[in-house]
Amino acid sequence: MISEVDWIDNGGALDLMVEEVGGLPVLRVEESLVLELRSIEKLMCELAGSKGFLFSSCTHQRDRIKIKAERLGRNFVNELKRKKGKFERCFPSHEVNPYVEVFFKCIDRVDDIHSLKDWPTLRNGAAEAFLVRINDLVEFVRLELSSDAFKSVLKRFRKASFKRINSLECYIDALFAQHSRMLVVRVDLSYESGFVSGREDFYGDVKRVKAHWAKMQKDLHKGIPVDGLLGFACKLEYGQLKGFHFHLLLFYNGSNHRQDGVLARMVGENWRDSITAGAGRYFNCNAVKEKYRYLGIGMISFNQLDRVSALKNRVASYLTKVDYWIRLSPESGRSFFRGNMPKLKSVKRGRPRAHELAQAVPRTAA
User: Is pTM, for the whole model, over 0.90?
Assistant: First the structure.
């Protein structure tokens, strides 16, 4: 199951989460933390499958006892030293992946963080005491991850994530079933620093932000600022550094529209000037699409399999799969929004697509 969501690497993250600083693309701090959560999950899975002691004793100079650690044990201690404060500061109202939650429990069980930093230098009695504590902690992880309670929580967490992933992929397939070519626009919508920051009245700010999105959604359906919207998907996120922000994906008819960068700018300016009365900010992903290694935005035809794959597995997937590691708490309400599934037409007009013609041609006997 992990392989189904283990899709994001450092290069992939840069493809999806570009921000310009001095003309260069960079990875924002909060997205970097998401990658760290991913690495913690992988570490915990390794611990769950490990056997025996990861830390043992050996003799050093003049028969002094020191600590010997396996590679996995070293990685575990190195992660524990980082603590969880930075995650709590950046994601104060979130649920984390169940594996990460168990990792945070481990941090809470560590009484002396200094011993984690100095463990290679511990000798004799101090070394033996540390061995007992750290091996007990490893065993705690194994028991937690093998428990029925954990498996039940993990199953619910995964089910919610995969349901959203499948929903969006089916939605994109349905749009391409009706439209052979679409202009795909991605715009990241945010606010100026300090506006609806969520630090004093988080849930009050959530309500205000969602009111902005409701107004934005109405405009898009009315053709403001661009007519002919075929569909959309939108994800609300929150981080202590960036505050509230939306990742917005829009689909327009490729036969009627061109210049995706211009369309994205028009959408962003409507957010900034009309929806938020000047308090909004936006990032036009289509304006820098040449920097993306896997191009899943711009003009895409149904038979451009590489671009359709990038759209589904890179661009659209960021709106869904990051939830596998961290998501807004249920008290915040819905954080993912998608257009209605298009109804398939009973009669298709126009020239059949190549794959439809191939299916219609009967095979001759060899």
Answer: no
